[in-house]
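quick one, two chains, predict together pls
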Amino acid sequence: MRVNSGLRRVLLAGSSLAVVASMPSLAQEFPQGGTLRIGISQMAPSPDPVVTTFGTNWATAGVVCEGLFGLDETWTPQPMLAESFEYGEDGTTLTIVLREGLKFHSGAALTSADVVASLERFREAAGIGAAFKGTVDAITAPDERTVVFELASPSPIVPGLLAGTQAVIMSSASLEGASPTEATRGLDCTGPYVLTEYQPDQGVTMTRWEEYAARSEPTSGASGKKHAYANEIVFRLMPEASVRRDSLITGEIDIANELPSDFYDALQNDPNTEAVVVPNNQSLTVVFNTKEGVAADVNLRRAIYYALEMEPMMLASVGNPEFYTLDPSWIPDPNSFWYTTAGVPEGFGTPQPDKVREYLEASDYNGEPIRWLVASEQYQKHYLTAITASQQLEEYGITVEIVESPMANYIQARADATQMDAFSSFLPTYVDPTSIAYLNASYPGFWEDPEKLDLMQQIATTIDPDERKAIFEKIHTLAYDQFPFIKYGTEANMYGIRAGVGNPARVPARAGDYYNVAPPPQD
Amino acid sequence: MLRYLGKRFLLILPTIFVPLILVFLLLRLSPGDPAGMMLGDQATAEQIAALRSQLGLDQPIWIQFLLWLKGIVTLDLGNSIFFREPVMQIIPRYAGVTILLTLVALTLAVIIGITLGLVTAMNRNKPIDRGVVTTAVLGISLPEFWFALLLIFIFAVTLRWFPVAGYNPPSAGIVAFGATIFLPALALGVRQSALMTRMMRSSMLDVLNEPYITTARAQGLPESTVIGRYAMRTAAMPVVTVAGLSAGYMLGGAVAIEIIFALPGLGRMLVEAVGRRDYPLVEGGVLTISLVLAVLNLAIDVIYAILDPRIRYQ
């Protein structure tokens, strides 16, 4: 464990960090009023974000709720419900003071007891909650506005862990009867909108909360001032992408989420709609089983990396070169502090036959099929990349057996090291490298290399941001030597808007910030 | 008649239970589990195993079967794993939409089918007959999802007469309800109407050659009376059979239409429940569909008896 002597100097009080890192994103103000109608592709049976790690199911909570911190457009945590935060002398305690006068939608005052209740539940949840549990030994509330986190060791990552949607603060009364796997009834939170209706398999209605206490800092991502332009925000479930597109064209909705790039021309050619392309959205990847089976052979993984040509795989999956980049960074958004290309071999994305042969000879590979899992629900991202890769690998005598199954089977099979050798996946930008699922040794793929484990321990306990970045670059370099996972490229996200929609999100860090999006002028 | 109905009612029980038992076994024996789908793709194997244990999914399958059987007998279908509310409360919310969709689609199909069948039979081998028969063959061949997208393009996107998708319940007003149910019902019903058109046409042609029709005409009865009072009643028998089968088909096959038009119906709910491995909800959905189909078949048999007095079930 490394303890930085300048801990307190480096970890400034939260308010000063907020000023430094916030980046105002609004060029103009918009009038309040109207209804913002959004066509979404899927919704969860419950709006509670704690009970699932499927990020697509957090959209409602992202509008209605807030956490102690929120991420700005550089993916840096900024205080939200917190007024300030400060680490203790030895770095093993973090004290957060709450903003004064905050209330929940129910009218109850927000106190430190609510924070403790919410975060105790979050600690037991899957995903980031597990990382939080491993970092924080205890959460206490010495008074109504103060929360103290006792850390297992000095760690700078707590604000980042608390900036995620799963770490939102709900009233302790609303958590009665709920558990980390049992959802709350409704959401009693502090955000700018109140959840007024949640109909699974139909839609969501959220109404502006006039008593919302906005922060005064400039808006940046999910941090700073939240404008709450629309009187109402309505999510309408439309599973079919073409129906979302058509509903946008006919003016039934103002925003159509998650559209395939094939619809770009149709939306651009209509004077009433616009296709918004958000670059650097997420990495398309394959994750290998490093624990057992044929892919546990590091030389085979190296041979696979050097055999792959990334451009055809991205083209097969995304369909249009304007919607992807061949960027090797494991942090897809260059706006992130953690973005790096450290350790990437020269000529990323171009096959190198000599190296393929060299590593194949050094491996124990004898033509056994690589069992490559893909989820049928993710045909474009999973299957099309896998089938293109298998064709490329076949030229070198590496055989792939694509195992396509529904998502439920895929999730179960990939968790069992005996059932798979590789699986298709994708990875967004994370707030901190310690949150990256692939780097968790118990995540499917099971990358337990001792050097990596040591580096992960170092990055989790090192305080200085620049030192942490240097450690992450070592991890990045190690990943580009051992290839526990391979990235093909970074894909953009495309969605559609009606003309007149104000301040639509154009960077990945703003995904879901509908409280800062203005509806088009109403007739 | 009552004795017959009693016997038929008893036969419904195995008709319902056999698919239920099959569904129970297939769900448990197929890979994938609700715990993984609940926790999501970032959950670790340990977290999934802990939730499996909490949900009782790690119990031997025969214990799960006995618990399930006890629930069925006591009319307790359990709680949905994902919604965390009783299945008996969830199913009616979704089944109502599908039943309404089926009723409207069936009504459209019967009206279109009987009308066109009658018109073509009365104009045998004329251009209108050939045109309608050709269109009917085309209608039977068209996949419903394709026809649904075509309807959306024409009537919602181009003409803007109807909304593209969504659902307003009847409580929102008949106009609002009709606006959201008409296109899905038409998409669902058009294939069945094509079947009914052909059935009605051939049946009508047969009946029109029957001696009693010739007798009626010879007695100088008006053509409308001959057709409406004598021919149609007999000719409608096979159409009733097709209508019954169509209703069953539409109840179980509305999934694609419900997904395209974003209708919160039973078919879509069932598909999503299967995807999530929400065992109690899938079993409840299958039970509902089995029950409705069984009752529907019984109703068709009763209608037979009413329409055709020669049928004696004794």
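The domain at 280-492 of chain A is CATH 3.10.105.10 (Dipeptide-binding Protein; domain 3).
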